[in-house]
TrEMBL record:
Entry keywords, A to Z: Membrane, Transmembrane, Transmembrane helix
Family matches, as Pfam families: GWT1 (PF06423)
Origin species: Crassostrea virginica
InterPro entries linked to this entry: PIGW/GWT1
Name of the featured protein: Phosphatidylinositol-glycan biosynthesis class W protein-like isoform X2
GO BP terms: GPI anchor biosynthetic process; protein localization to plasma membrane
Transmembrane segments: 30-47, 67-100, 166-186, 198-224, 245-267, 273-296
Top-level taxon in the UniProt lineage: Eukaryota
A Gene Ontology term for the protein's cellular component: endoplasmic reticulum
Gene: LOC111118609
């Protein structure tokens, strides 16, 4: 889960309209409208989990906060920043933001507040204090999103026509991930350990390094496939799980959450045997993949904004 939420933010940043220079920068009004379904989903999750007394750890996001609220907050805040900054290189503002946030965590007691609350004993009084982890960590996720937008610009806005061009880009990704892994290890030792709960500097660098590594790996696979074939085109009937997930990304994410909830509600997972656990996992992935592939094959996209 720690990697999943971070990679979800990165994926959204890489394919965002800003990274691909598609049209004008989203206005605050349009961002609010497009974030409304996420806010509704977040509220629905709060009501459903409280209504069925679903097991949850309040130290992850807080009492009422969840990842849907985080995604909507990142989207709205990024639109605000882009309105003032314009569609410029965003790595600078993103780095400044995460460094200032880490400074608050280390030097101004923000880490202690997130861990122990306003009363110093882990209590949760008031809306802000009850959801302190989810609200404050938005700063880290926003920085991660802005860095991902810049990464997307580098991917989409550079013309690459030959295998040599893509091999050169693979070399850039390889070098970038090596630098990021080194920075992550140094940060974890000398600054603060990786914390998804805080979305701190080490976490942002870790997720970015992992994202670049995965992009590099996928690019190598695609280049290998290309060298083994005579054409890059594929049949319209060709169904790939990755393509199906990309086609209905949010739906896939929602279904995965719903299936996880159903499993946790119906089975005591802590007491499950190895065979039962493997059966659940195989069924979970099989059903999730089947639904996604069928929707892709039938060209049904469930997107409501």
């Amino acid at each position: 889960m720690d990697t999943g939420v971070g990679l979800f933010i990165v994926a959204n940043g890489i394919v965002s309209p800003e990274s691909r220079n598609k049209g004008k920068i989203s206005s605050l009004k349009s961002s609010l409208l497009s974030s409304l379904p996420l806010i509704i989903l977040g509220m629905g999750r709060v009501l459903s989990t409280k209504g069925v007394n679903y097991q949850e750890h309040v130290t992850e996001y807080g009492v009422h906060w969840n990842f849907f609220f985080t995604v909507s907050a990142v989207k709205i805040c990024s639109s605000l920043l882009l309105t003032f900054l314009g569609n410029i290189i965003l790595s600078g503002p993103a780095i400044i933001l995460i460094l200032l946030y880490q400074l608050l965590l280390n030097k101004f007691g923000l880490s202690g507040y997130l861990a122990l609350g306003a009363d110093g004993h882990g209590g949760r009084t008031g809306l802000l204090d009850s959801n302190r982890e989810g609200i404050v960590s938005c700063a880290g996720y926003l920085s991660l999103y802005l860095l991902a937008v810049d990464l997307g610009k580098h991917i989409f806005n550079r013309e690459r026509k030959t295998v040599r061009d893509w091999l050169s880009f693979a070399g850039v990704l390889c070098l970038l991930q090596a630098v990021l892994w080194c920075v992550m290890m140094w940060t974890e030792i000398h600054v603060q350990q990786v914390s998804r709960r805080f979305a701190n500097l080490a976490y942002v660098v870790w997720i970015l390094a992992l994202s670049v590594f995965l992009l590099w790996l996928l690019l190598l696979v695609e280049l290998f496939r290309y060298t083994q074939s005579t054409t890059l085109s594929k049949s319209e009937d060709d169904v790939c799980l990755l393509s199906a997930i990309n086609y209905n990304g949010l739906l896939y994410f929602l279904l995965a959450n719903v299936f996880t909830g159903l499993v946790n509600l119906s089975i005591d997972t802590l007491k499950s045997s190895l065979a039962q656990s493997m059966g659940i996992l195989v069924s979970y992935m099989g059903i999730l993949g089947l639904v996604t592939v069928l929707l892709y094959k039938w060209k049904i996209r469930l997107k409501f904004w």
